[in-house]
């Protein structure tokens, strides 16, 4: 039957090997807690396994410490995980029944005649220095002649020699304590217990274990030197430590174990970094080229699906009004000058304002005509203290004809344009000063409407209507649709009241209504045809389109028939087609030389850059595809 040993976290390898040598079972199970001192060093574990092989015994390490189990496996020791099933199967205590009618005797004190020698590990004289026989104590005066059972606690580690100033076993005797445990309800019994540390003694108090009383320091020193046998520690050789020899000598031993533990920890971190963390980022740069392609397509408004070069189109149509004011640039070409001045125009018609355009005629009572040099808005009537006041505004006027007879004094004017309506008598004007400037003998500097002014007004009115129309329909377009901005049609719906060429005016107003319409189509369909027409193979390398810039020129729309002859020029940007998955598979596990050989099979790759993580340990691409990432960089022009 296998024997189970429970190891303390700070217990050293010497103690563990001592347990193994005292075991009579062929299979021995050692239960270690997490971060146990023995499990932190591969050297300790190899010494442990070698000692077991020499003794012809099998050892099994049970622990939840994954790092320690991994080191144990490397040392050749079988491991198991600690679980509830194991704790139920493992025997924590062993009961040994004694014969009846045999008087109970106390447990003998352990006698230490010498220190455990580390250089004897793995040899037949491992405990050669421990030769002093154990002596029995005097029988307890209260011994009972009844059958008893001896309970052996699972921690059978030989007592450790502590330093003089150690606080761990301060106040605790090295001699084992005796506890009486009855086999029956009416019978007492005695249980032997190993020495307890202060922490264990405190935990044992509820179970009736007698605790030693605290002694003064001087008495403890006296007892220490009188009761504890002398321990001789052989000095460790300075050079050439024998194979399997581990020097254990106080602080020096702790320092050695600390150094070995640090080396083991560093080795473990290196192993974890190498096997679990390495990654590689592969930056691939393909080739890039540009191509220009011209295509033609027939658009039809009665077709809804693209087929054999037929492009579905639709027409968007709106009516737009425009009102603009333009400054005249012409000058009067006559030799006579025209009189000019200012008038105040009155609105006795209503509370609403009235607009009057440039060149509006004003007529005197004797029939002389003057015209407004610029458009004005006459305010409406107002109510002040229950009395209605007419709206009034001052405006500049110029005589319709040249001559000194237009240099008239202040007078009243009517507006001939309102004749025949109620506004004719409600609107009036009056000058407050004499009109001046009329005469002959010099070149006139009066501004007049020129032909170029009328042409400019019509052109700018159409451009404004077009811009306003395109801005409105942006929100009406479907995804991937495009309006053919280059072929927007604007048609004048009604004649425009415009001044004639030569009319004296510094500015004039232009008002008109236009019908605006445009063809709309799917630009995605156009791009697909342009990309399909591009050249896909160049110098044995396959290319794919990345982006396209399309311009439309010389297209011929026919709005009445609903057809469009579309002509487009596409500037295509193309990159070599790199199969990232195939490239990654080919590069797995490759070093620098292997990477160069792989690139010979991928002519579409211009350059490649491999970034390792971490840089310190990596010299080749990892074998696992989950730790290799391929990133495509922007293409570079083919030389």
Question: Would you summarize the structure shown here?
Answer:
The chain is of the alpha+beta class and 639 residues long.
Topology:
Layout: E1 3-6, H1 13-22, E2 27-31, H2 42-55, E3 58-62, H3 66-74, E4 78-80, H4 84-89, E5 94-97, E6 149-152, E7 177-179, E8 191-193, H5 198-204, H6 217-227, H7 251-276, E9 279-300, E10 310-327, E11 330-331, E12 338-347, E13 354-356, E14 361-363, E15 369-372, E16 376-378, E17 382-384, E18 387-389, E19 391-402, E20 412-413, H8 423-426, E21 427-431, E22 447-448, H9 451-473, E23 481-483, E24 489-492, E25 507-522, H10 523-533, E26 537-538, E27 541-552, E28 556-558, E29 563-576, H11 580-587, H12 592-599, E30 605-613, E31 628-632, E32 636-637
Parallel strand pairs: 1-2, 2-3, 3-4, 9-10, 9-31, 9-32
Antiparallel strand pairs: 5-6, 7-8, 9-29, 9-30, 10-25, 11-22, 12-19, 12-21, 13-16, 14-15, 15-19, 17-18, 20-21, 23-25, 24-25, 26-27, 27-29, 28-29
Helix pairs in contact: 1-2
């Amino acid at each position: 039957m296998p024997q189970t040993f429970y190891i303390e976290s700070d217990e050293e390898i010497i103690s563990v090997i001592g347990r193994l040598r005292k075991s009579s079972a062929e299979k021995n199970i050692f239960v270690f807690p997490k971060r146990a001192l023995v499990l932190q060093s591969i050297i300790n574990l190899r010494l442990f396994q070698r000692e077991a092989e020499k003794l012809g015994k099998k050892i099994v390490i049970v622990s939840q410490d994954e790092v320690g189990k991994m080191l144990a496996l490397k040392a050749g020791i079988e491991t198991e995980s600690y679980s509830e099933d194991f704790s139920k199967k493992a025997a924590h205590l062993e009961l040994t029944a004694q014969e009846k009618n045999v008087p109970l005797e106390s447990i003998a004190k352990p006698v230490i005649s010498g220190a455990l020698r580390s250089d004897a590990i793995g040899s037949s004289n491992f405990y050669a220095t421990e030769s002093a026989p154990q002596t029995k104590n005097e029988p307890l005066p209260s011994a009972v002649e009844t059958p008893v059972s001896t309970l052996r606690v699972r921690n059978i580690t030989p007592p450790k020699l502590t330093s003089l100033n150690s606080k761990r076993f301060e106040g605790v005797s090295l001699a084992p304590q005796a506890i009486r445990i009855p086999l029956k309800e009416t019978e007492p019994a005695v249980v032997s217990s190993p020495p307890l540390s202060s922490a264990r003694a405190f935990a044992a108090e509820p179970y009736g274990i007698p605790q030693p009383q605290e002694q003064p320091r001087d008495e403890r020193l006296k007892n220490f030197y009188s009761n504890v046998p002398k321990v001789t520690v052989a000095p460790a050789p300075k050079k050439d430590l024998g194979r399997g020899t581990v020097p254990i000598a106080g602080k020096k031993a702790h320092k050695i174990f600390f150094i070995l533990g640090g080396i083991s920890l560093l080795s473990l971190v290196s192993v974890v970094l190498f096997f679990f963390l390495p990654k590689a980022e592969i930056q691939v740069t393909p080739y890039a080229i540009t191509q220009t392609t011209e295509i033609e397509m027939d658009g039809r408004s009665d077709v809804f699906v693209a087929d054999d070069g037929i492009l579905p189109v639709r027409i968007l149509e709106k009516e737009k009004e425009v009102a603009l004011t333009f400054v005249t640039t012409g000058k009067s070409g006559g030799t006579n000058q025209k009189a000019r001045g200012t008038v105040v125009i009155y609105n006795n018609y209503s509370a609403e304002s009235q607009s009057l355009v440039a060149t509006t005629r004003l007529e005197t009572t004797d029939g002389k005509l003057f015209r407004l040099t610029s458009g004005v808005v006459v305010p409406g009537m107002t109510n002040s203290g229950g009395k209605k006041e007419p709206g009034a505004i001052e405006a500049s006027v110029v005589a319709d004809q040249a001559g000194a007879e237009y240099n008239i004094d202040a007078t009243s004017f009517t507006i001939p344009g309102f004749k025949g309506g109620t506004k004719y008598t409600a609107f009036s004007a009056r000058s407050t000063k004499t009109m001046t400037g009329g005469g002959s003998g010099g070149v006139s500097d009066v501004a007049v409407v020129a032909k170029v002014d009328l042409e400019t007004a019509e052109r700018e009115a159409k451009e404004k209507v077009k811009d306003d129309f395109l801005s409105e329909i942006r929100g009406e377009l479907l995804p991937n649709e495009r309006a053919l901005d280059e072929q927007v049609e604007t048609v004048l719906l009604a004649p425009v009241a415009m001044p004639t060429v030569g009319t004296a005016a510094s500015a004039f107003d232009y008002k008109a209504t236009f019908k605006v319409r445009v063809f709309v189509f799917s630009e995605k369909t156009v791009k697909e045809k342009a990309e399909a027409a591009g050249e896909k193979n160049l110098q044995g390398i396959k290319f794919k389109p990345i982006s396209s810039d399309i311009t439309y020129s010389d297209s011929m729309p026919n709005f009445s028939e609903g057809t469009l002859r579309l002509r487009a020029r596409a500037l295509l940007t193309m990159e070599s087609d790199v199969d990232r998955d195939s490239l990654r598979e080919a590069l797995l596990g490759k070093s620098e030389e292997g990477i160069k050989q792989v690139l010979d099979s991928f002519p579409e790759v211009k350059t490649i850059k491999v970034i390792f993580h971490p840089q310190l340990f990596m010299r080749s691409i990892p074998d696992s595809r989950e730790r290799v990432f391929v990133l495509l960089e922007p293409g570079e022009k083919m030389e």
